[in-house]
Design goal:
By secondary structure, the protein is α/β, with parallel strands linked by helices. The protein contains 23 helices and 18 strands. β3, α11 and β4 form a beta-alpha-beta unit.
């Protein structure tokens, strides 16, 4: 998969060049050349990003491409802004000194980018020579990933309720065959539960034949069919695929069987339909199929009923402790011999968040270490690094990484955005989706699809849906398991996507209460600046805000301005010509929005909710022709300014105040409006035209 955001951004740029080149035809040769270069970069990234963790040259090249694409996006944005400005001001002369200077600077920038890309291409031949080697290694790695039904029963902790539930689904003597799926994130114990069922004495007595198939990501249907036939005790020599399926069917025809399909990632190429159609459908036997997967969509495609989907729970505190102590100590050792380690052990277990594979991985590491409090604290303090260091294919981080790697680019963007949210926090779906609109990840008309993205991430067990909206059932709040969050933070920082830690290469920064704001002077590449803190933040005017000229998203919610006045703040904000998202929620110093807001011609999302002293919006707000979302909920604004009908692209209006007897006909011209949230009070008057 391509670098998550950059792949999407390259797509957007390519489409923009197709649709807007005729509007910026002064630069058409250079823009067309850049489009060709973007096509190359997109193709390169799609192949190279799979190997970036292995090769420094690949990482360096991807970093260069990322920066070039961001720069290209800035240039195209400036061209479009300039073109729109010229349309609004038809009196401007095409050959004025200002126009000539803009064209000259733009052509120079485009030539520079195209030259840099051509230069970079010249360094790539050694990379292409390595590609074949990496592909061979990857194929061998995938072919080695397998599971078996063999397990140590004495190491099973906390899974007995799962065992009992599934056994009770399987054993009743009804005729209809049953399909059961066990769904959960990597490392949750899905395969272990399937092994317990497979080896259970009542299951052995119930079924005449048992088959265990390890499917994995790279599906080899011939290997699957041969493995099944071999487990049935049949000779597979000189049989083609059709004969193997026929033989499987004949062998299972007159007996009851249990089939476990472990670690299923996809059924897209039709292998499951072939196998399912070939299995006997005898009415004399109640056969059972158990499937383990990380993706609910796979379960649905395999024909599993909702009532027969099992979601294993994470281990509770006591179960986590029992599993940890079992593997952290040698047979002749006990935790009680090392009382000084108890508190640090609890901290380590807490970081595992009940995930069995994480607990087992870290406890097995500690088993090999000195029982020294300094050693254990060091591992606790570097928890994620230690898990990554033990990065075998079966480790918890490798397991979670596989889930991320399998995501389509659109879902990677969504997940990476969650990385800046505080640990254990509930994340608002509306906040995320509005941010995506502001960044250009999605169009507002795709908001329904965006909610589906969140549902899909939940189905893939990478986020948890905490709450759904009562009125339409859409996702309202989500959260992430801490280990998933730790992995996503690492990926987001490696790709310079976003972070809440100082890094001058980062493109999206979340401000926390512990951050020294003077460091912002060095963040000239920022495209998003977001306040993510539970307490107000003092914003000093000594920070050189003028450096942030690439900002698309600015969130200063609940920010105390200190010595900076509202006028000074908006003078700076109005200079951000590329800004498309502005959020000032909860700013109690804001009483009147300055007229300079009208300069933000690219603004698409404007949020003033919960500004308890905001009473007036200027009429200049009606000049924001690209505005799609306007949110003034819970503000004491008596009425919106006249001329609101000029906002012809407005699609969501929240906080339309009826208290002054405003007429709804003012909204009649807003043909794109799909969401209207009206603010009603005891004095509200709804009048007819």
């Amino acid at each position: 998969m391509a670098d998550a955001l950059v792949g999407t951004l390259a797509d957007h740029l390519i489409q923009a060049f197709k649709h807007r080149c005729h509007q910026v035809n002064e630069f058409e040769p250079e823009l067309n050349n850049l489009k060709t270069q973007l096509d190359f970069m997109k193709a390169f990234m799609a192949d190279a990003s799979r190997h970036k963790r292995k090769d420094e040259m690949v990482r360096t090249t991807l970093n260069i491409i990322r920066d070039l694409i961001y720069e290209a996006d800035d240039i195209l944005t400036d061209c479009i802004i300039h073109d729109d400005y010229r349309k609004e001001n038809s009196y401007l002369r095409k050959f004025s000194a200002r126009e000539k200077y803009f064209r000259y600077k733009t052509v120079e920038k485009l030539k520079k980018i195209n030259f840099q890309i051509e230069k970079m291409k010249g360094t790539l031949p050694p990379y292409f020579q390595m590609m074949a080697i990496y592909r061979d290694q990857e194929q061998k790695r995938c072919s080695r990933r397998w599971t078996s039904p063999v397990f140590d029963e004495s190491s099973i902790i906390g899974l007995r309720d799962d065992e009992k539930k599934i056994i009770n689904w399987i054993l009743p003597p009804t005729i209809a065959p049953i399909k059961i799926v066990i769904i959960g994130m990597g490392g949750l114990g899905k395969t272990t539960i399937a092994k317990i069922i497979f080896n259970h004495e009542m299951i052995k007595a119930r079924f005449q034949k048992k088959i265990w198939v390890s499917v994995s990501q790279t599906v080899n249907e011939e290997s699957i069919f041969k493995s099944m036939l071999k487990q049935l005790g049949e000779d597979i020599t000189a049989l083609d695929e059709g004969q193997i399926l026929q033989k499987i069917q004949m062998t299972l025809l007159n007996c009851s069987f249990l089939l476990v399909m472990d670690d299923v990632w996809s059924v897209a190429d039709g292998w499951w339909n072939k196998l399912s159609d070939g299995l006997p459908k005898s009415e004399r036997h109640r056969n059972a199929i158990i499937i383990t997967t990380r993706d609910k969509a796979v379960a649905k495609e395999m024909g599993v009923k909702e009532s027969q989907i099992h979601h294993p729970k994470i281990l509770n505190e006591q179960e986590s402790w029992s599993l940890f102590t079992k593997f952290a100590f040698l047979p002749n050792e006990e935790m009680k011999l090392y009382p000084e380690l108890k508190e640090v052990a609890k901290n380590i277990i807490r970081k595992c968040q009940g995930l069995p594979l994480a607990i087992k991985t870290i406890s097995c590491l500690l088993r090999t270490k000195n029982k020294s409090i300094s050693v254990w604290r060091g591992i606790c303090d570097n928890f994620l690094e230690e898990l990554c260091r033990r990065g075998s294919e079966g480790s918890v981080i490798a397991s979670l990484q596989l889930s991320y790697d399998e995501l389509p680019i659109r879902l990677k963007n969504c997940l990476l955005c969650c990385s800046i949210c505080p640990e254990d926090s509930n994340i608002s779906a509306d906040w995320l989706i509005r941010w995506w609109v502001g960044e250009g990840f999605i169009e507002y008309k795709e908001i329904e699809t965006a909610y589906n993205y969140l549902s899909e991430l939940a189905d893939r067990c990478l986020i948890e849906v905490v709450k759904k909206r009562d009125y339409d059932g859409k996702v309202h709040l989500i959260k992430m398991h801490d280990l998933v969050r730790d992995l996503i933070i690492k990926i987001a920082e490696d790709e310079a996507f976003c972070s809440s830690r100082p890094n001058q290469k980062i493109h999206r920064l979340a401000i926390t209460e512990s951050m020294d704001l003077n460091q912002l002077n060095y963040y000239s590449r920022l495209r998003s600046l977001l306040v993510q803190t539970s307490c107000p933040l003092q914003l000093e005017n000594k920070i050189d805000m003028a450096r942030f000229n690439s900002l698309r998203v600015l969130d200063l919610s609940y920010t105390l301005l200190g010595a900076t006045s509202i006028k000074e703040l908006f003078e700076w904000i109005s200079s951000l010509k590329r800004l498309s998202y502005l959020k000032l929620t909860g700013n109690n110093e804001l009483e009147k929005v300055p007229r300079s807001i009208g300069k933000l011609k690219t603004l698409e999302v404007l949020i003033f909710s919960l500004c308890k002293n905001l009473k007036q919006l200027p009429v200049e707000i009606n000049s924001l022709q690209k505005l799609k979302i306007l949110d003034v909920r819970c503000c004491p604004i008596l009425s919106l300014p006249p001329g609101l009908s000029k906002l012809t692209n407005l699609q969501e209006l929240s906080g339309f105040n009826m208290s002054s007897g405003c007429h709804l006909h003012e909204l009649r011209c807003l043909k794109q409006l799909v969401v209207l949230k009206i603010q009603l009070t005891s004095t509200s008057k709804i009048q007819d035209d």
